[in-house]
Amino acid sequence: DAPNYEVQIFSRDPLVLYITNFVTQSEIDHLLRISEGRYEQSMVYPVSGEYVDTNQRVSESAYVPRDDVVRQIEKRARKFQGWRGKATHLQELKTQRYGVNGFYNFHYDWAGDSDEGNRVTTFMVYLATNCTGGGTNFPRLERPEDRRWCNVIECDDDEYSGVTFKPIPGAAVFWENMHPNGSVHRATRHAALPVKSGEKVGLNIWGWDTSWKS
């Protein structure tokens, strides 16, 4: 069954939305199950090519097969964005697993110089979060004064500047990586903070537009 998710606007520039219940518990269980046996050590992707760099990224990644459940999540992500036309598509969905001390240092999701267009949008979906640490930090976003946001972001004990979203199962953070004119938005710099104990698994959904070049 499709979830009854709720959307809150966190930032308008860049556009950052917080989505409660973007995926159901049954979808989470399914994604975790089909990811097993597929995990490989995560790469970094600079202009020079892909390789393992444990100073930048320590995690495992798994591309998930496009079965009926995954296709339903893809459909939800496309509908959420109101996508139209042949220029837009979703990259193959990928789960990310972080053990103790797992992290992904500060980076952008847009693709740099690419003949294939650019990653215009990102969903960071939290699946399994039996951990401490492991939040998603945006150092260039401004922390809101409204204390109600403290349910989903770190407030009093955040050791990092900017905004850190807590990893809450089923929730997602959505953001646009580009300005409306097609230029990259540098306020979308972010990091997967180190997991201090336990394990975190997330799902990346990246939206591409082949008509947008960086």
Automatic annotation (TrEMBL):
<dbReference type="InterPro" id="IPR044862">
    <property type="entry name" value="Pro_4_hyd_alph_FE2OG_OXY"/>
</dbReference>
<dbReference type="GO" id="GO:0004656">
    <property type="term" value="F:procollagen-proline 4-dioxygenase activity"/>
</dbReference>
<dbReference type="InterPro" id="IPR005123">
    <property type="entry name" value="Oxoglu/Fe-dep_dioxygenase_dom"/>
</dbReference>
<dbReference type="InterPro" id="IPR006620">
    <property type="entry name" value="Pro_4_hyd_alph"/>
</dbReference>
<dbReference type="GO" id="GO:0005506">
    <property type="term" value="F:iron ion binding"/>
</dbReference>
<keyword id="KW-0223">Dioxygenase</keyword>
<keyword id="KW-0408">Iron</keyword>
<keyword id="KW-0479">Metal-binding</keyword>
<keyword id="KW-0560">Oxidoreductase</keyword>
<protein>
    <recommendedName>
        <fullName>Fe2OG dioxygenase domain-containing protein</fullName>
    </recommendedName>
</protein>
<feature type="domain" description="Fe2OG dioxygenase">
    <location>
        <begin position="86"/>
        <end position="214"/>
    </location>
</feature>
<dbReference type="InterPro" id="IPR045054">
    <property type="entry name" value="P4HA-like"/>
</dbReference>
<dbReference type="Pfam" id="PF13640">
    <property type="entry name" value="2OG-FeII_Oxy_3"/>
</dbReference>
<dbReference type="GO" id="GO:0031418">
    <property type="term" value="F:L-ascorbic acid binding"/>
</dbReference>
<dbReference type="GO" id="GO:0005783">
    <property type="term" value="C:endoplasmic reticulum"/>
</dbReference>
